[in-house]
Design brief:
Length: about 250
């Protein structure tokens, strides 16, 4: 059996060819119920930035914009689900706000700065944005500069190399271990099963980055809270009794 599925958003029909398959089996396949599709739409800030880059750098700007919008409008995650479609729109607004505040796109929506590096490491979000924050603060430069000064500008010291590997391991190679393994810390002599803490300057920069993201997201929540259906939020699921008016009256009093 071979065929070509219809292109989502473009084709109404697809084609399937049966070769050397008994007719009764073909009839069963045709009459069988269609399995429910479940999409794993990787909606993320990095994806939004990749779509912006696609639209900006493509030779055919109109075609690139149409393809980028198609990805957002025809996602399986929000297929025939109006509420999730609204959530996608709100998340898109938050992503754009984040990208502007962090300097990945300008006020006109054009990519700038480290946008290319962020999209290249899109599969490691949010570590890609944390790495760029380290680069912008010059932490790697300061670490390597001290080593070159101490060694006469010829090579990095072993301590610096180990620190670089430690930082990159925290960003891109860290995995959660069962709590029972934590008690074995210090017993692995041949390898670093449990990572050491980040160097103080990197840990402080990561904490600062988290605070910035929290503030951006908080501002976004405040700006979008007016779209919330408060009566629906306060409506009990079984009795359908709405407590919103009672709660609102209590606040006013």
């Amino acid at each position: 059996m071979s065929g070509r599925a219809g292109r989502r958003g473009q084709d109404l029909l697809g084609k399937v060819f049966f070769y050397n398959i008994p007719l009764p089996k073909v009839q069963r396949l045709i009459k069988a119920s269609v399995p429910k599709l479940k999409g794993q739409f990787p909606l993320s800030i990095s994806l939004i930035l990749r779509l912006i880059l696609l639209a900006e750098k493509a030779d055919d700007e109109a075609d690139a914009k149409a393809k980028a919008l198609s990805v957002l409008k025809h996602s399986l995650m929000a297929f025939n689900q109006p509420k999730k479609q609204e959530m996608l729109k709100l998340f898109f607004l938050f992503s754009v706000q984040f990208l502007v505040r962090e300097g990945y796109i300008n006020q006109e929506g054009k990519p700038q700065g480290f946008s290319g590096l962020a999209t290249h490491l899109h599969y490691r979000e949010p570590s890609n944005f944390v790495l760029i924050s380290f680069l912008e603060k010059g932490l790697f430069h300061k670490l390597c500069e001290r080593s070159l000064t101490n060694k006469g500008g010829k090579q990095f010291s072993e301590t610096v190399m180990e620190t670089l590997v430690l930082v990159l391991a925290h960003l891109f190679g860290r995995l959660r271990l069962p709590h029972s393994v934590v008690g074995l810390k210090g017993q692995f002599s041949q390898s670093k099963v449990i990572l050491e803490e980040l160097p103080p300057e990197f840990a402080a920069a990561a904490e600062e980055y988290n605070d910035v993201v929290d503030k951006i997201f908080g501002t976004f929540l405040l700006s979008t809270s007016k779209f919330a259906d408060m009566e629906q939020e306060y409506r009990l699921p079984l009795s359908k009794i709405c407590k919103y008016n009672v709660f609102n009256t209590a606040l006013l009093s």
